[in-house]
Amino acid sequence: MKKSILFLSVFSLIIGGTLFSCQSQAAREDKAKEKVQDAKNDLHNAQRDLVNVKQDTVTNYQKFIQESENQIKVYQKNIAELKVKIAKEKKDAKTVYEKKLADLEQKNEQLKTQITDYKDEQVENWDEKQIEFRKDLDELGSAIADFFVEDE
């Protein structure tokens, strides 16, 4: 009898443990399915965010290119106006101004070529290039604005 009771007790524990582990397995599967679904949702959100960032980057890039091209055109117009003013100057001052103006025209053409290159090919280190280009563009603008200011 003792053996029967012991046998039934062990058998009951084995059956109970199996049933308990089956329930745990189902619960674990459900939890794993939830995690997979959460991961899929996170991936979807990350992909959507990436598309938005790419669109913003392209928009900002195109805006920068357009603004730069417009500014270069303004500088070309300003240089043309300076040519007219220089033509009215005396000969000795005219020579100095023509040299300064040639330098400005050359710098403007370099910037024009540079922005065209940026449009035509993918640029590495875009942030650095953009900062450097803006600096050069600002320097040209200052040089045009200060054209008739005497050098010290």
Helix percent reads over 70%
Summing up helix and strand content along with how strands pair, one would put the structural category as mainly alpha
How big a fraction of the residues is strand?
under 5%
Number of domains: 1
Radius of gyration: 37 Å
User: Helix tally?
Assistant: 3
Task: Catalogue the unreliable spans.
Answer: none
- Average residue-wise pLDDT: 83
Describe the model:
The chain is mainly α and 152 residues long. It has one domain (2-145). It is 89% helix and 0% strand. It contains 3 helices and no strands. It has helices spanning 2-87, 91-120, 126-145. The chain is rod-shaped. The model has no long low-confidence stretch (mean pLDDT 83).
Layout: helices, strands, pairs:
Blueprint: H1 2-87, H2 91-120, H3 126-145
Q: Brief description of this entry?
A:
This protein has three helices and no strands. The protein has 152 residues and is an all-alpha fold.
Identify the notable features of this structure and list them briefly.
152 residues; mainly alpha; 3 helices; 0% strand
